[in-house]
Design goal:
The complex is a heterodimer of chains A (274) and B (288).
Chain A lengths: L10 H9 L6 H8 L1 E5 L12 E8 L2 E8 L5 H6 L7 H16 L4 E7 L6 H5 L2 H13 L5 E9 L1 H5 L6 E5 L9 H9 L5 H7 L4 H6 L5 E3 L9 H21 L3 H14 L8
Parallel strand pairs in A: 3-4, 4-5, 5-6, 6-7
Antiparallel strand pairs in A: 1-2, 2-3
Helix pairs in contact in A: 4-6, 8-9
Chain B lengths: L2 H16 L14 E3 L6 E3 H6 L15 H8 L6 E3 L14 H12 L5 E8 L2 E8 L10 H17 L3 E7 L7 H20 L4 E9 L1 H4 L8 E5 L9 H8 L10 H6 L5 E3 L1 H15 L5
Parallel strand pairs in B: 5-6, 6-7, 7-8, 8-9
Antiparallel strand pairs in B: 1-2, 3-4, 4-5
Classes of the chains: A alpha/beta (274), B alpha/beta (288).
Chain lengths: 274, 288
């Protein structure tokens, strides 16, 4: 049974699905759609952050750089990957690999799946804000095609750092929001228990973001409880990426930067709304 | 006589007259009393203002209204404001947001949380953006993002430096994802200005946090933290909840940021004008 008829699920149900441990993660997508993936470690400043994977490989025979959040599938995995919440090193590793991609003319594909950047003491001491800012800035000026795919949760600046792209693809039940619904409810109503109400208000579903001009394409999902659903999903994501990538490959680097800038220029502007 | 010089003289004169009433925001409360949050000392608003919003009793730094910050910093009468009436919109149709904006407007005397324009500082022409925490904690929504973006665009066009006085509680929740996207929008504007080889100075004032720290406030060529400022990404309470312990005294202070390597200097309010003037002078011309 497919659940891809828009409007059938409430935002709350979609948020729950976006966070489900049944969903394939970045490493599953890489394994299934990238050939000869070679992971690369480290930010060359301090350490290697396991909540972010980055590396190179072939996508449909095209050399690409892939960067994504890793959450892990069980508790041990979650702990190891900090539930997909990066430290500054994760963002610095990503910035480094993005610049490397630009140097060698490789498109960048990012997989976004994070509740947000890790709010830890050490993260703060090592410049979480600066690391995210630098990553956003770097991505906004890359001379190679950039595609971001939202596979689950896209929370806050921690998600945005990997999403300043030419084409933003969202899975039907993925979300993208200014903050987690719990955080949103806590800040505005001083009550994180009202998170479900926040989900309804925040316009965080793929359909909402598509309407606001932030998401470029929605990929319909099968139910992940079904056998064979993963294979269906990998195929659909693969098709969506190549479909979006093809026209970008023919576009000159300067033109890509210019278009990305103009897209951002319009974002949230009353006078040139997307 | 050169007709262009003549024309400039007339325009300058018009400008001088039209700006006489400035600054307007702070003046409405001329007779009111200001209480220091730290020590409880009371003083007439005018006196506090003349003392650069530093408590004469305990030396605590109070928050500075945007227009007062501008007059503290700029050569007299040199400030020309951009997009003064610019407002954002309400992408989520969020209940109560209109009201909240109304309150913020009457409290601060501003249309939105940032004032942008051009000015001269110690004779050097610059673009200047000043965020005002009296307006919804200077949170960044579509209007703030747009005004900062346009200020950078103007600076690129006119080959001018940009100085930002950052202060913010972060992205503005009420405008949802559109606020978050302003982080990308402002960062892209900084990047373009940067590529044009132009100077960007950011002064981190109390408090600079969240989405503003994670975007344009962390991307300057020269980063100054004003003494006493709280600067960080995640909120103290959130960090304490996450790690399950209390944070030490001075965590996320201006001095902390300098010690950790995230700002060039910590400067007292009285010295800001001179320091910025010097920085502008040094950057006026490179050797090639």
């Amino acid at each position: 049974m497919e659940q891809n008829k828009a409007g059938r699920l409430s935002p709350v149900e979609r948020v729950k699905l976006a966070r489900s441990s049944l969903r394939p993660g970045t490493e599953d997508y890489i394994k299934n759609i990238i050939e000869d993936y070679i992971p690369m470690a480290g930010d060359r400043c301090y350490g290697d952050d396991l909540s972010v994977t980055g590396g190179i490989g072939f996508f449909h025979g095209i050399p690409v750089t892939v960067i994504g959040h890793v959450k892990g599938h069980d508790l041990d995995g979650n702990m190891k990957h900090r539930f997909g919440m990066p430290d500054p090193e994760g963002y610095r590793k990503a910035s480094r690999l993005m610049l490397q991609a630009a140097k060698f003319g490789r498109p960048v594909i990012t997989f976004v799946d994070t509740p947000g950047a890790y709010p830890g003491k050490e993260a703060e001491e090592r410049g979480q804000g600066q690391a995210i800012a630098e990553c956003i800035k770097t991505m906004s000026r890359l001379s190679v095609p950039t595609i971001s795919v939202f596979t689950g949760e896209g929370g806050s600046g921690g998600a945005l750092a990997f999403a300043v792209s030419d084409r933003l693809i969202m899975m039907e039940n993925s979300i993208f929001s200014i903050l987690s619904p719990e955080g949103f409810a806590s800040i505005l109503w001083h009550d994180s228990d009202r998170w479900q109400e926040a989900c309804e208000k925040m316009k965080l579903t793929a359909a909402d973001l598509n309407e606001m001009g932030i998401c470029d394409e929605i990929v319909p999902e099968p139910s992940f409880e079904m056998e064979g659903s993963y294979a269906v999903m990998f195929r659909r994501i693969d098709e969506a990426i190549i479909r979006n990538l093809k026209p970008l490959l023919k576009t000159d680097g300067e033109e890509l930067i210019k278009r990305r800038y103009l897209k951002l220029r319009k974002t949230g502007s009353k006078y040139g709304r997307n | 006589m050169n007709p262009f010089k003549e024309r400039k003289k007339i325009l300058d004169e018009i400008g001088r007259i039209s700006r006489l009433a400035f600054p307007s925001a702070g003046q409405s409360e001329n007779n009111s009393i200001v209480t220091c949050e730290k020590c409880g000392h009371k003083d007439p608003a005018e006196e506090i203002k003349n003392n650069l919003y530093i408590c004469p009793e305990c030396g605590a730094y109070m928050k500075v209204p945007a227009y007062d910050r501008i007059s503290m910093l700029c050569d007299e009468g040199s400030f020309r404001e951009f997009n003064k009436g610019r407002t954002g919109y309400d992408p989520l149709d969020f209940p109560g947001y209109e009201n909240k904006l109304k309150q913020a407007r009457s409290k601060s005397g501003l249309k939105e949380a940032v004032v942008t324009g051009t000015a001269r500082i110690s004779g050097h022409r610059t673009v200047l953006c000043v965020m005002d925490p009296a307006f919804m904690m200077a949170s960044m929504g579509t209007a703030v993002g747009e005004k900062i973006f346009l200020a950078f665009e103007y600076a690129v066009k006119k080959k001018l430096p940009v100085i930002i006085f950052a202060a913010s509680g972060g992205a503005r929740m009420q405008e949802g994802i559109m606020s978050l996207m302003q982080m990308a929008k402002t960062s892209a504007a900084v990047a373009k200005h940067d590529e044009a080889g132009l100077l960007y100075i950011c002064v981190l004032t109390n408090p600079t946090t969240g989405g503003v720290t994670a975007s344009f406030a962390s991307l300057a060529d020269v980063t100054i933290a004003e003494k006493g400022a709280l600067v960080g990404f995640a909120g103290k309470r959130v960090i304490e909840q996450t790690i399950g312990e209390e944070l030490p005294e001075g965590f996320q202070s201006a001095e902390f940021q300098m010690e950790k390597g995230f700002c060039d200097m910590v400067i007292g309010r009285k010295n800001l004008r001179r320091t910025i003037g010097k920085l502008l002078a040094v950057h006026e011309r490179g050797v090639r």
